[in-house]
């Protein structure tokens, strides 16, 4: 009998899909989530109701929220990003967000970015995240090519 190959997410991220920066970052993470470890929820969708989660929509729109499904713990703001980057194999970024100096800088900068996210210039956002998505697609293609015959060679 074949083993159960159903993927069970480890994290559920709630993001502002009406924000171009947020949407671009989540699409980048979606492209890198080859293991299906993350469930993505657009909290800006009109039918989204945060009440059963015990969190207000205002809170979700003012900081990225990730629910760790193993213990229902909330990761909010920079720790949420760190968990998402780690889950998608971007361990260098995750480590950087744990570095004391960089973590402090990210914690101080993040609230400003959240407040101004709808007014940030779109061209640089597209440029940065399109490059990141291209790199993720190239890496996925290499993995597919390396595993073509059923045995992976990396």
TrEMBL record:
This is Putative DCC family thiol-disulfide oxidoreductase YuxK. Pfam families: DCC1-like. It comes from the Bacteria. PANTHER family: OS04G0668800 PROTEIN (PTHR34290:SF2), SI:CH73-390P7.2 (PTHR34290). GO terms for molecular function: protein-disulfide reductase activity.
């Amino acid at each position: 009998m074949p083993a159960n190959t159903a993927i069970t997410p480890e994290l559920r991220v709630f993001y502002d899909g009406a924000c171009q920066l947020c949407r671009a970052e989540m699409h980048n993470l979606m492209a890198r989530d080859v293991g299906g470890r993350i469930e993505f929820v657009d909290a800006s969708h009109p039918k989204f109701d945060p009440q059963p989660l015990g969190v207000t929509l205002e809170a979700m729109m003012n900081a990225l929220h990730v629910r760790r499904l193993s213990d229902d713990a909330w990761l909010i703001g920079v720790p949420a990003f760190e968990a998402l980057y780690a889950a998608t194999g971007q361990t260098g970024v995750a480590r950087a967000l744990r570095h004391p100096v960089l973590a402090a800088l990210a914690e101080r900068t993040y609230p400003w970015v959240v407040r101004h996210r709808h007014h940030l210039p779109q061209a640089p956002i597209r440029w940065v995240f399109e490059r990141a998505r291209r790199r993720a697609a190239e890496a996925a293609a290499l993995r597919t090519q390396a595993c073509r015959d059923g045995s992976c060679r990396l």
